[in-house]
Inverse folding.
């Protein structure tokens, strides 16, 4: 599955911008561990420039160019982005697969979801127009009340490597629909498709500064973004350890944060279960996206009645379920992105984490 890796710069104020320190990071193919390209490495200086661009975009023409424009106006851009994403689906899926290590088929589904997400929030953006200044009934006629919906401002969006473009879209699309301007900082382990989102935004004519995309290391780019006094909110998806750091930085100025952190989710196996289905769904839940997903069902909790049953029955039932699971598990094969099966994990550190 040979595909050229685009060489991009940072995306700031509607144009490609070289990092101040001119640093770049290697792109590693997780299946072969070969270096297949590189991405720009932003630092605090680049964050400063991006935040300034986002604040200018927010206030441009007293907000009428974006923040206080109609939802329908913003929806036009979101739908245009969705169309471009769909047009480039095959290319983007291949880039996603080679960058983060998931099967090509799964990557293609993700790109479909990306386009659908932009369409969904385009609809919601249009819906904001009819809800603006909606009256609120009060028991006293002396007072009048209505709901005024305003964007929170400039938002920093920090996303993980297991769903690079889709996770980025889950944060970018609602932010833009609401009239916010944004700085997206994807994981340094998988940033290719997020930089291609920048190219799409250029092609559809998204106003400069509305979306800025900075690639780079967490401590050098993510941390300055989380702690920046002119970023009004941070949305972060990733590890609990990093989430603690994000919340700590935001707390210094009482900045709102949204955190989606890792977990260790169980799947429940009841006494009357169909063993074939239990094995199938346990396998799916545990190894979907190579098991590198916060909602992976990576633990099995077996119904207490099975444990309290007579020893011969319990042993037989337990062994049966174990054997069924092992048998189904043996059907999975480690493979390359263009074939069915599981892929290599992204790195040794991610393997240990999950």
């Amino acid at each position: 599955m040979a595909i050229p890796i685009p060489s991009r710069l940072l995306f700031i104020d509607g144009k490609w911008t070289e990092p101040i320190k001119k640093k770049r990071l290697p792109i590693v193919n997780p299946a072969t561990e070969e270096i297949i390209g590189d991405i720009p490495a932003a630092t605090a200086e680049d964050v400063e420039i991006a935040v300034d661009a986002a604040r200018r975009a927010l206030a441009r023409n007293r907000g009428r160019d974006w923040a206080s424009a109609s939802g329908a106006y913003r929806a036009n851009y979101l739908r245009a982005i969705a169309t471009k994403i769909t047009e480039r689906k095959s290319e983007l899926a291949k880039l996603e697969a080679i960058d983060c290590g998931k099967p090509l088929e799964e990557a293609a589904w993700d790109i479909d979801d990306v386009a659908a997400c932009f369409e969904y929030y385009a609809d919601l953006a249009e819906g904001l127009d009819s809800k603006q200044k909606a009256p609120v009934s009060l028991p006293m006629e002396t007072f009048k009340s209505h709901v005024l919906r305003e964007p929170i401002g400039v938002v920093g969006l920090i996303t993980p490597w297991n769903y690079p473009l889709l996770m980025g879209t889950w944060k970018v699309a609602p932010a833009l629909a609401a009239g916010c301007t944004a700085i997206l900082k994807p994981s340094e382990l998988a940033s290719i498709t997020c930089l291609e989102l920048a190219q799409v935004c250029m092609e559809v004519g998204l106003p400069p500064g509305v979306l800025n995309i900075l690639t780079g290391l967490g401590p050098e780019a993510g941390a300055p973004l989380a702690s920046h006094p002119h970023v009004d909110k941070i949305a972060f998806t990733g590890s609990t350890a990093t989430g603690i750091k994000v919340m700590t930085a935001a707390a210094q100025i009482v900045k709102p944060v949204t955190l989606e952190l890792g977990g260790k989710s169980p799947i429940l196996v009841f006494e009357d279960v169909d063993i074939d289905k239990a094995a199938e769904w346990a396998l799916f839940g545990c190894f979907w996206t190579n098991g590198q997903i916060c909602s992976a069902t990576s633990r099995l909790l077996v119904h207490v009645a099975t444990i309290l049953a007579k020893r011969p029955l319990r042993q037989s039932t337990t062994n049966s379920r174990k054997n069924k699971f092992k048998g189904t598990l043996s059907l999975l094969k480690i493979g390359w992105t263009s074939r069915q099966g599981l892929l290599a994990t992204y790195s040794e550190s991610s393997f240990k984490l999950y």
The chain is about 45% helix and 15% strand. The CA atoms of residues 66 and 179 lie 6 Å apart.
